[in-house]
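Dear colleague,

Following up on yesterday's call, I've attached the two folding results inline so they're easy to grep. Please treat them as preliminary; we haven't cross-checked anything against experimental data yet. The first protein's sequence and structure tokens come first.
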Amino acid sequence: MEDMMPLMTRATHRASGLVTAVRPEQFGSPTPCAEFDVKALIGHLEWVAEMFESLARGGERTEQGPYAGDFPERADRMLTAWSRPEAWEGTCAALGGLPMTTVAHLWLVDMVVHGWDLARATEQAYEPEAEAVARGLRFTEQSVEMGRRSGAFGPPVAVPDDAPPFDRLLGLIGRDPAWKP
């Protein structure tokens, strides 16, 4: 918890800043996450924040509702739930018994990658924290097959072996680092 919580917090705040800078006329714009336009991606982030708050409290997976426009508030509640030491203990029954530390890594990767998705789609500047990228890449390299089986990751996109770590992370989960709107 001691090393993950600051990474989760900073990645979440970066994502919140990107969300709040989106203009309504950008809602229909495509994103690198092919199944979502900008509004649907923000709605997905809202749902993920609500679900990860529930998971941190020992609750169930939640169902995704419609876009509400309150991601920053939901994200803050999620961070509050994860700031409790007991949130990090044991396993998550709602996600098939994954260790809670694994669940926290899922959140980190989601924030880092979906932050990039949103920034690219809305042409905002985005530079994820190097430590969050390194942590997310290590985690994803170990769990990529689980992510593909669950549908969270797409087929890999080839990137050069000497590509920057963030490009390797994006390619590993199925994003094209060169994507442009």
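Below is the second protein, in the same order (sequence, then structure):
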Amino acid sequence: MTRRGFAATAEQLARHLRVVTYDRRGWGDSRGKVAPQRWWATHGDDLIAVIESMGEAAEVVAWGSGGAAAIHAALRRPELVRQLVLFEPTLGAGPPRARRLRHLRRSLAWAAAGEHRRSRAVFWRATTQRGVWSLQTGHRGITCAFDHVRSDIREMLLSAPGPLADELLAGTEDELLERLGELRPEVHILLGGMSVRPVFRIADRWVERCPTAGFRGEDDCDALLPLNRPRVFAACVLEMLGYTDWRAIAAARLAELREVLRLPALERVRVRCVRNSEVFVPDATTGALRWDPEAESACASLIVGSTYEVTGVSPREFGVIDECGEDYGYPPQWFEPVAIDWHE
């Protein structure tokens, strides 16, 4: 990733703070190479140089393996790092030779063959895939956040210049796990609730080793949260740093919902259910599968025609309180927006 990927997030954060983004050595517009044996230590030293050039200590936000550079900087010069916000840090994920990271070996193979776009595609699909329950098939399937983001985001991820293969070979600085107890700044770990499970196990290990660390997950967000939901990401960062509270996150979610539904600026949003399941039955005449609302009316937790208040939103999921009183996520295409009677 380059600094351009954080442009939308930086714009949101800049409303409250002075924001500085930069390209790491060898990435984007930055030049220079890194010796493999000092990969993350060098990037950490570069981060220290960036902070020193600002003339004051900084609160550092890092994503994924970039957390290794942030930890190196905080351990070496703790007076320069006030707080750390790490989104899905990968310290302790293991090197590419690990069996669970077989997809990353495929990424390295494509890079060695000079197929850098294919290498990046394998990497992003491997690191953003997640399990989902499929009502159509009745078993756990796999979807991928990378395949669902806007085309311009996918293009940025595939074309961003940088030594991705060298970074994979450098590993995830597993040995830093043993030094987390030395960290002086507060550490805030943010996870996407719909992200891959290993990042949650990594966060557990962090909290065990680092007394100043705590983590939280955003339920309807995935591993590409900084790119495809910059308002929510920025609001979470500001809350963790103590500059805003949960109301900023609620406002960011509502702003996204208005964009998805093309609604006017409302303080609340309601939707009407137009279907309530993904179960299909064969048509008696043609044999073609079709959705049958009557067949589902007895067991569905939503009622077609009923109105619900939206509690959360993502491009693929609305949060609503259903007829059972539970707050669950449902596909946006099951609903249509309705006007709110402010005199109720």
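For the second protein, one point worth flagging: Residues 39-54 form the longest helix (16 residues).

Best wishes,
A.L.
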